[in-house]
Structures are given as structure tokens and as C-alpha cells.
Specification:
about 250 residues; alpha/beta; TIM Barrel; 8-stranded parallel β-barrel; 10 helices; 12 strands; globular
Length: about 250
């Protein structure tokens, strides 16, 4: 059995970590370097840094911040936000990112996934897929630009296509559950896990160890969370201990 990974997420805006609900109503959560070091000390397996205003502002994720984090971190770092080209990815990798996440640009130009995986490898290419539920049925559409734009694209269909084009991992965020503390969208996770073979990182709505356990049971290979950690409701160490007690293999 492969170990399940716990991955804190730092949503970055104006060089500060922020967190909201369904990508809105953002509140300050702290300094990115301080939080990154804290989570590494607590036993985080990886870290995700998403510059959430980069796409709207027409720029790439802040490479300077990536470089600063890399100097202090030994764990893998995934970076996303505003990535549009091979040059953007090269710049972030050069600053110390281990993997780069693409979202809006890949939806608009799916060939970008082929180009990134062909140049840098699937292990470096992460598809950030934000999905919103359509009605009460088990159907989800892809949303982009921090949830501002609904694309009409079916999330499961897009996940399968991205895998075929060379994406090595999917960062799957439920727009409906983001920041809610109600737990992940388990039906969404299960729907994708039944259709793709690449790892799925579940995101959106986690607050408790039980939420993480349920996501793993639904098919997630890793679990991402933010609010519960940023606002000191729990720690990575506590979550790993609880998952281990529940029979979930985690890295110690």
C-alpha cells in the first residue's frame, strides 16, 4: 500500500497567505515562509503554493517567493498561478519548484499539457482542476480564473484528456466545498478516481482527520488542506497520527 500524503496549501495574494470560501471572502492567514517552515516541521509531505491573483493580473506566480521558500524547505514544492508557457514553467523550476500546476491556460489550450509533459516530464506536470457541481446529479463542470468563469467542460472528461496528454497528477478542488470545513466532495473524488490512473490530490473542504480518511477511502492518493492548519485548528502531526490509528498508511 502506498502511503497517503498530507499537503498543506498556501494561497498567495500580495505576498501574504490568504484563505476564503469558494475562492471568495479572503482573509489573511499569515506569512508564507513562516507557515511553510512550520508545516515542514510538523511533518508535511509536500507543499503547494498557489498565487491566486496571478491569472487575473496577467502574470506568473511570484518566482522570488518560490526561491525564498526553496532556500528553507527540503520537502517537494508544487507551484501554480498564471502559468501560460514553457518559459513560465522553466522560470519556476529554476527557482526551485519541483512540480508546476496549470489550470486556466491548459483549459484554453490543452496542447499546453502535451508541451509541458514532453519538455519537463509527467512527474513535473500537475493539472489543477477546479470543479463545480451541476445541479444535484453527480456531474461537475470545470471552472477557471479562481472560479469566476464556468467553462461547460465536464470535469471527468477533462481529467481523462489531461492524463492522456501527459499530466502526471491532478490537484482536484471542489469549488462548492472550498473553505467550508464540511469535508471533501467524496462523489467528485470517486468519479475521477474511477476514470484516471494518475494520482489525485483531494482539495476543498477539509477540517478533520475523518474528512481526510474519507477522501482516501474515496480514491484520493493525497489530501490537501489549508484553513484548519492556518488557523491552528489542528496540525499535520495530529492528522497523521489520527489517520494511522484509522489504518491509513502515512509517511512518518
Amino acid at each position: 500500500m502506498l502511503s497517503k500524503r498530507i499537503i498543506p496549501c498556501l494561497d498567495l495574494r500580495d505576498d501574504r497567505v490568504v484563505k476564503g470560501v469558494s475562492f471568495c471572502s479572503l482573509r489573511d492567514a499569515g506569512d508564507p515562509l513562516s507557515l511553510a517552515k512550520l508545516y515542514q516541521d510538523q511533518g508535511a509531505d509536500e507543499l503547494v503554493l498557489l498565487d491566486i491573483s496571478a491569472t487575473a493580473e496577467g502574470r506568473t506566480a511570484c518566482a522570488t517567493t518560490v526561491g525564498t521558500l526553496r532556500e528553507q524547505l527540503a520537502i517537494p514544492l508544487t507551484v501554480g498561478g498564471g502559468v501560460q508557457s514553457l518559459q513560465d514553467v522553466q522560470r519556476l523550476l529554476g527557482k526551485g519548484a519541483d512540480k508546476v500546476a496549470v489550470n486556466s491556460a491548459a483549459v484554453r489550450n490543452p496542447d499546453l499539457v502535451d508541451a509541458l509533459s514532453g519538455r519537463f516530464g509527467s512527474q513535473c506536470t500537475v493539472l489543477a482542476l477546479d470543479a463545480a457541481r451541476r445541479g444535484q446529479v453527480c456531474s461537475w463542470e470545470v471552472v477557471i480564473r479562481s472560479g469566476e468563469e464556468r467553462t461547460g467542460l465536464d470535469a471527468v472528461v477533462w481529467a481523462r484528456e489531461a492524463e492522456a496528454r501527459g499530466a502526471g497528477e491532478i490537484l482536484l478542488t471542489s469549488w462548492d466545498r472550498d473553505g467550508s470545513g464540511q469535508g471533501y466532495d467524496l462523489e467528485l473524488i470517486a468519479a475521477l478516481a474511477g476514470e484516471v490512473r494518475i494520482p489525485i490530490i483531494a482539495s476543498g473542504g477539509a477540517r478533520t482527520a475523518e474528512h481526510l480518511r474519507a477522501a482516501c477511502a474515496a480514491g484520493a492518493d493525497a489530501v490537501l488542506l489549508a484553513s484548519a492548519l492556518h488557523f491552528a485548528e489542528t496540525t499535520v502531526h495530529e492528522l497523521k497520527s489520527a489517520l494511522s490509528t484509522a489504518g491509513i498508511e502515512v509517511r512518518t
